[in-house]
Amino acid sequence: MQKKKSYLAIIAIVALIILLATGYTFSKFYQSVKGKGTMNIATWAFKATTNDNRPLSEIILQEDNGGPVLPGSKGSFDITVDATGSAVDIAYSTEVTDENLPESMIFYMENDKALRYQDFRDLALDKIKGTLSPTLGTTATYKVCWEWPFDGNDLIDNSSSNNYNFNIEIIGEQVKK
Fold this sequence. Notes:
By secondary structure, the protein is of the alpha+beta class. Helix content is 18%, strand content 33%. It is built from three helices and nine strands; from the N terminus they run H-E-E-E-E-E-E-H-E-E-H-E. The strands form two sheets. The protein has a six-stranded antiparallel sheet with strand order 2-1-3-8-5-6, covered by helices on one side. Strand 5 and strand 6 form a beta hairpin. It is rod-shaped.
């Protein structure tokens, strides 16, 4: 019986080798498809300038005729915000810091002479803001007018020890859809 079992095992192994050698296999179909994903990013463009397309850091307060600023003088400067080339709406606002200007100066917008501000910061926060849109308009220009009227503080305001200036920043931000 022992010989019969060993013959049976040998026959089973030989049969298995013959089956594998003759091409009897288990098979399946297999295919791989590769691809590549891309994104179409919306264009973004935003800048703010002053007169003659100069950077905001070059805002110069001077009389409209180019003369120096002194009590009794007045003048203006432009601020232009521009989103030309942007595919998205851009909301913008203005920050003014380190404002050090004569106490009696008055600021107003050319198109609204009745509303006057004692601080440039207040005018900028209130008036130089909005939304630019590729469909409705990508630029806005603000003509900021100023006057330095004669008043009782002229000696203090016009002392040579005063260094008048302000910092301005216009912040553009994409509007959520």
